[in-house]
Amino acid sequence: MTGGNRGIGRAIAEAFLAQGDQVAVTSRNGDAPEGAFAVACEVTDPDSVEAAFAAVEEHQGPVEVLVANAGITRDTLLLRMSEDDWSSVIDTNLGGSYRVAKRAAKGMLRLRKGRIVFISSVVGLLGSPGQVNYAASKAGLVGMARSLARELGSRSITANVVAPGFIETDMTAVLPEEQQASYREQIPLGRMGRTEEIANAVTWLASEQAGYVTGAVIPVDGGLGMGH
What we know:
Elements: H1 7-18, E1 24-27, E2 37-40, H2 46-60, E3 65-68, H3 83-111, E4 114-119, H4 122-126, H5 132-152, E5 157-164, H6 170-173, H7 177-186, H8 195-205, E6 217-220
Parallel strand pairs: 1-2, 3-4, 4-5, 5-6
Helix pairs in contact: 1-8, 2-3, 3-5
Protein backbone atom coordinates (compact mmCIF):
# COMPACT_ATOMS: atom_id res chain seq x y z
CA MET A 1 0.00 0.00 0.00
CA THR A 2 1.11 3.57 -0.62
CA GLY A 3 1.29 6.20 2.12
CA GLY A 4 1.17 3.69 4.96
CA ASN A 5 3.50 5.37 7.42
CA ARG A 6 0.94 7.38 9.43
CA GLY A 7 -2.72 8.12 10.04
CA ILE A 8 -5.30 6.21 8.03
CA GLY A 9 -2.67 4.47 5.91
CA ARG A 10 -0.81 3.13 8.93
CA ALA A 11 -4.07 1.82 10.45
CA ILE A 12 -4.87 0.01 7.20
CA ALA A 13 -1.41 -1.56 7.08
CA GLU A 14 -1.70 -2.66 10.72
CA ALA A 15 -5.11 -4.22 10.06
CA PHE A 16 -3.71 -6.37 7.25
CA LEU A 17 -0.72 -7.31 9.42
CA ALA A 18 -3.11 -8.37 12.22
CA GLN A 19 -4.75 -10.78 9.76
CA GLY A 20 -1.37 -12.38 9.09
CA ASP A 21 -0.99 -10.91 5.62
CA GLN A 22 2.32 -9.99 4.03
CA VAL A 23 2.29 -6.21 3.83
CA ALA A 24 4.55 -3.84 1.93
CA VAL A 25 4.26 -0.13 2.70
CA THR A 26 5.60 2.71 0.61
CA SER A 27 6.26 6.22 1.85
CA ARG A 28 8.56 9.02 0.85
CA ASN A 29 10.91 8.33 3.76
CA GLY A 30 10.57 4.54 3.83
CA ASP A 31 8.95 4.42 7.28
CA ALA A 32 6.45 1.60 7.98
CA PRO A 33 4.67 -0.17 10.85
CA GLU A 34 6.56 -3.00 12.55
CA GLY A 35 6.19 -6.22 10.57
CA ALA A 36 5.65 -4.51 7.23
CA PHE A 37 8.19 -4.40 4.41
CA ALA A 38 9.17 -0.73 4.06
CA VAL A 39 9.89 0.74 0.64
CA ALA A 40 10.72 4.34 -0.21
CA CYS A 41 8.63 5.51 -3.15
CA GLU A 42 7.79 8.83 -4.78
CA VAL A 43 4.46 8.18 -6.53
CA THR A 44 4.92 11.13 -8.89
CA ASP A 45 7.98 9.42 -10.39
CA PRO A 46 7.29 6.40 -12.66
CA ASP A 47 10.84 5.08 -12.18
CA SER A 48 10.45 5.20 -8.40
CA VAL A 49 7.13 3.34 -8.65
CA GLU A 50 8.72 0.65 -10.85
CA ALA A 51 11.66 0.25 -8.45
CA ALA A 52 9.31 -0.04 -5.45
CA PHE A 53 7.20 -2.74 -7.09
CA ALA A 54 10.31 -4.64 -8.18
CA ALA A 55 11.58 -4.59 -4.58
CA VAL A 56 8.23 -5.78 -3.21
CA GLU A 57 7.93 -8.58 -5.79
CA GLU A 58 11.45 -9.77 -5.04
CA HIS A 59 10.77 -9.71 -1.29
CA GLN A 60 7.30 -11.27 -1.11
CA GLY A 61 6.02 -12.12 -4.56
CA PRO A 62 3.39 -10.51 -6.79
CA VAL A 63 1.05 -7.86 -5.37
CA GLU A 64 -2.45 -9.29 -4.92
CA VAL A 65 -3.99 -6.30 -3.12
CA LEU A 66 -3.17 -2.65 -3.83
CA VAL A 67 -4.31 0.10 -1.49
CA ALA A 68 -3.60 3.53 -3.00
CA ASN A 69 -3.60 5.96 -0.10
CA ALA A 70 -0.73 8.41 -0.70
CA GLY A 71 -2.00 11.98 -0.81
CA ILE A 72 -1.21 15.61 -0.08
CA THR A 73 -3.15 18.85 0.38
CA ARG A 74 -2.38 22.39 -0.75
CA ASP A 75 -5.49 24.16 0.50
CA THR A 76 -6.33 27.66 -0.66
CA LEU A 77 -9.18 29.47 -2.37
CA LEU A 78 -9.37 29.11 -6.15
CA LEU A 79 -8.31 32.68 -6.99
CA ARG A 80 -5.23 32.29 -4.80
CA MET A 81 -4.38 28.78 -6.02
CA SER A 82 -1.11 28.61 -7.92
CA GLU A 83 -0.37 26.34 -10.84
CA ASP A 84 1.90 24.35 -8.53
CA ASP A 85 -0.80 24.08 -5.84
CA TRP A 86 -3.04 22.51 -8.48
CA SER A 87 -0.58 20.32 -10.34
CA SER A 88 1.24 18.92 -7.30
CA VAL A 89 -2.01 17.72 -5.66
CA ILE A 90 -3.41 16.27 -8.89
CA ASP A 91 -0.12 14.57 -9.77
CA THR A 92 0.32 13.03 -6.32
CA ASN A 93 -3.24 12.05 -5.44
CA LEU A 94 -4.64 11.16 -8.86
CA GLY A 95 -1.53 10.63 -10.95
CA GLY A 96 0.16 8.62 -8.20
CA SER A 97 -2.87 6.34 -7.93
CA TYR A 98 -2.84 5.86 -11.71
CA ARG A 99 0.84 4.91 -11.70
CA VAL A 100 0.61 2.35 -8.89
CA ALA A 101 -2.65 0.87 -10.24
CA LYS A 102 -1.16 0.47 -13.71
CA ARG A 103 1.91 -1.29 -12.32
CA ALA A 104 -0.09 -3.50 -9.94
CA ALA A 105 -2.54 -4.49 -12.68
CA LYS A 106 0.26 -6.09 -14.71
CA GLY A 107 0.87 -8.69 -12.02
CA MET A 108 -2.81 -9.12 -11.21
CA LEU A 109 -3.65 -9.87 -14.85
CA ARG A 110 -1.07 -12.67 -14.81
CA LEU A 111 -2.52 -14.01 -11.55
CA ARG A 112 -6.09 -13.64 -12.90
CA LYS A 113 -7.13 -12.15 -9.57
CA GLY A 114 -6.59 -9.01 -7.52
CA ARG A 115 -8.02 -6.20 -5.43
CA ILE A 116 -7.47 -2.47 -6.01
CA VAL A 117 -8.73 -0.04 -3.36
CA PHE A 118 -8.42 3.72 -3.75
CA ILE A 119 -8.68 5.91 -0.64
CA SER A 120 -10.72 8.95 -1.66
CA SER A 121 -12.56 11.38 0.64
CA VAL A 122 -16.04 12.63 1.38
CA VAL A 123 -14.68 15.94 0.03
CA GLY A 124 -14.38 14.37 -3.42
CA LEU A 125 -18.16 13.92 -3.54
CA LEU A 126 -19.37 16.74 -1.28
CA GLY A 127 -16.92 19.49 -2.20
CA SER A 128 -15.12 21.81 0.18
CA PRO A 129 -14.22 25.50 -0.11
CA GLY A 130 -10.48 25.95 -0.36
CA GLN A 131 -9.98 22.42 -1.66
CA VAL A 132 -10.74 22.64 -5.38
CA ASN A 133 -7.53 20.75 -6.20
CA TYR A 134 -7.92 18.11 -3.48
CA ALA A 135 -11.62 17.53 -4.20
CA ALA A 136 -10.94 17.17 -7.92
CA SER A 137 -8.17 14.64 -7.28
CA LYS A 138 -10.35 12.58 -4.93
CA ALA A 139 -13.38 12.68 -7.24
CA GLY A 140 -11.14 11.51 -10.07
CA LEU A 141 -10.42 8.30 -8.18
CA VAL A 142 -14.08 7.31 -8.53
CA GLY A 143 -13.97 7.53 -12.33
CA MET A 144 -10.65 5.70 -12.36
CA ALA A 145 -11.91 2.87 -10.17
CA ARG A 146 -15.10 2.40 -12.18
CA SER A 147 -13.19 2.34 -15.46
CA LEU A 148 -10.73 -0.20 -14.05
CA ALA A 149 -13.64 -2.28 -12.74
CA ARG A 150 -14.90 -2.55 -16.33
CA GLU A 151 -11.45 -3.14 -17.85
CA LEU A 152 -10.22 -5.75 -15.39
CA GLY A 153 -13.37 -7.46 -14.15
CA SER A 154 -13.15 -10.37 -16.58
CA ARG A 155 -9.89 -11.38 -14.87
CA SER A 156 -11.46 -11.44 -11.38
CA ILE A 157 -9.84 -8.12 -10.43
CA THR A 158 -12.01 -5.69 -8.46
CA ALA A 159 -11.52 -1.93 -8.15
CA ASN A 160 -13.29 0.02 -5.41
CA VAL A 161 -13.14 3.30 -3.51
CA VAL A 162 -13.34 4.01 0.21
CA ALA A 163 -14.39 7.59 1.00
CA PRO A 164 -13.51 8.55 4.58
CA GLY A 165 -15.15 11.50 6.31
CA PHE A 166 -13.66 13.43 9.21
CA ILE A 167 -11.32 11.00 10.98
CA GLU A 168 -9.39 11.32 14.23
CA THR A 169 -5.78 11.69 13.11
CA ASP A 170 -2.77 13.84 13.97
CA MET A 171 -4.00 16.26 11.29
CA THR A 172 -7.44 16.77 12.83
CA ALA A 173 -6.13 16.73 16.42
CA VAL A 174 -4.35 20.06 15.91
CA LEU A 175 -7.55 21.82 14.77
CA PRO A 176 -9.10 24.26 17.27
CA GLU A 177 -11.79 22.60 19.42
CA GLU A 178 -14.36 25.06 18.05
CA GLN A 179 -13.61 23.88 14.51
CA GLN A 180 -13.76 20.22 15.54
CA ALA A 181 -17.13 20.83 17.22
CA SER A 182 -18.40 22.48 14.03
CA TYR A 183 -17.41 19.41 12.03
CA ARG A 184 -19.12 17.07 14.50
CA GLU A 185 -22.36 19.06 14.22
CA GLN A 186 -22.49 18.24 10.50
CA ILE A 187 -22.10 14.49 11.06
CA PRO A 188 -25.30 12.51 11.74
CA LEU A 189 -23.44 10.14 14.10
CA GLY A 190 -22.14 13.14 16.01
CA ARG A 191 -18.50 12.11 16.19
CA MET A 192 -15.39 11.83 14.09
CA GLY A 193 -14.42 8.43 12.78
CA ARG A 194 -11.54 6.27 13.93
CA THR A 195 -8.75 5.17 11.62
CA GLU A 196 -9.53 1.52 12.34
CA GLU A 197 -13.06 2.06 10.97
CA ILE A 198 -11.55 2.97 7.61
CA ALA A 199 -9.23 -0.03 7.85
CA ASN A 200 -12.20 -2.34 8.46
CA ALA A 201 -13.80 -1.27 5.19
CA VAL A 202 -10.55 -1.72 3.26
CA THR A 203 -9.77 -5.19 4.61
CA TRP A 204 -13.36 -6.26 3.82
CA LEU A 205 -13.04 -5.06 0.21
CA ALA A 206 -9.79 -7.02 -0.06
CA SER A 207 -11.37 -10.20 1.30
CA GLU A 208 -13.11 -13.12 -0.39
CA GLN A 209 -16.37 -11.86 1.15
CA ALA A 210 -16.29 -8.85 -1.21
CA GLY A 211 -15.57 -10.86 -4.33
CA TYR A 212 -18.72 -9.60 -6.08
CA VAL A 213 -18.21 -5.93 -5.15
CA THR A 214 -16.52 -3.78 -7.79
CA GLY A 215 -16.83 -0.20 -8.99
CA ALA A 216 -18.32 0.72 -5.59
CA VAL A 217 -17.79 3.81 -3.47
CA ILE A 218 -17.96 2.88 0.21
CA PRO A 219 -18.50 5.96 2.41
CA VAL A 220 -17.13 5.70 5.93
CA ASP A 221 -18.14 9.15 7.07
CA GLY A 222 -20.78 8.90 9.80
CA GLY A 223 -23.41 9.90 7.25
CA LEU A 224 -21.80 13.25 6.34
CA GLY A 225 -21.93 12.71 2.58
CA MET A 226 -25.29 10.96 2.29
CA GLY A 227 -26.79 11.11 -1.18
CA HIS A 228 -23.57 12.11 -2.93
